[in-house]
Design a protein that fits this description.
This is TnpV protein. InterPro entries: TnpV. Pfam families: TnpV. The structure is a single chain. By secondary structure, the chain is mainly alpha-helical. The protein has one domain (31-125). The protein is built from five helices and three strands. The termini are far apart. 13% of the residues are buried.
C-alpha cells in the first residue's frame, strides 16, 4: 500500500496542508512577536476579552495580538515614568526631601505612583 503525502500544497488558495491522522489540516503559521507582555499588556488583554471581544478575536486570529499588547505595555510604562517624574517635580518630591526625611519621601512617592497608575488605567487601558 502506498504511503500518502504528509504535506500538500493547494495552488488555488496558496496554502500548505499537513496530514494528521486521516485528514489534511492547513499548516498555518502565525508570526510571533517575541517581545514580552507585561502588567499593562495583560490588563488590556483582559479588558479586550471582556468588553471588546470582536476586536480581541480579530487581533488574535491575525497574529497581531501579542505585538499589539507589547506596544500598549511599552506606551503605558513610558507614560507612567513620565507622569511620575512630572508629578514629583510639581509637588517638590526630590532628592533633598529624600535626604532630609526618607519616610516622608517614600510615602509621597507611593501616592504619586498610585495616582499615575490610575491615570494610565483610565486613559490607556480602560478607555
Amino acid at each position: 500500500m502506498e504511503k500518502p503525502n504528509t504535506r500538500l500544497h493547494d495552488e488555488n488558495n496558496g496554502l500548505d496542508y499537513v496530514l494528521v491522522g486521516d485528514y489534511y489540516f492547513p499548516a498555518l503559521i502565525l508570526a510571533e512577536d517575541s517581545r514580552p507582555v507585561g502588567r499593562w499588556g495583560r490588563m488590556y488583554k483582559r479588558y479586550l476579552k471582556e468588553h471588546h471581544s470582536a476586536r480581541y478575536q480579530a487581533l488574535l486570529l491575525s497574529g497581531r495580538l501579542n505585538s499589539y499588547l507589547a506596544d500598549i505595555d511599552a506606551q503605558a510604562e513610558e507614560q507612567l515614568e513620565l507622569l511620575t517624574q512630572q508629578m514629583a517635580e510639581r509637588e517638590g518630591v526630590n532628592e533633598e526631601l529624600k535626604a532630609a526625611n526618607q519616610m516622608e519621601w517614600v510615602q509621597r512617592m507611593n501616592r504619586i505612583q498610585n495616582r499615575a497608575e490610575e491615570v494610565i488605567k483610565t486613559t490607556l487601558i480602560y478607555h
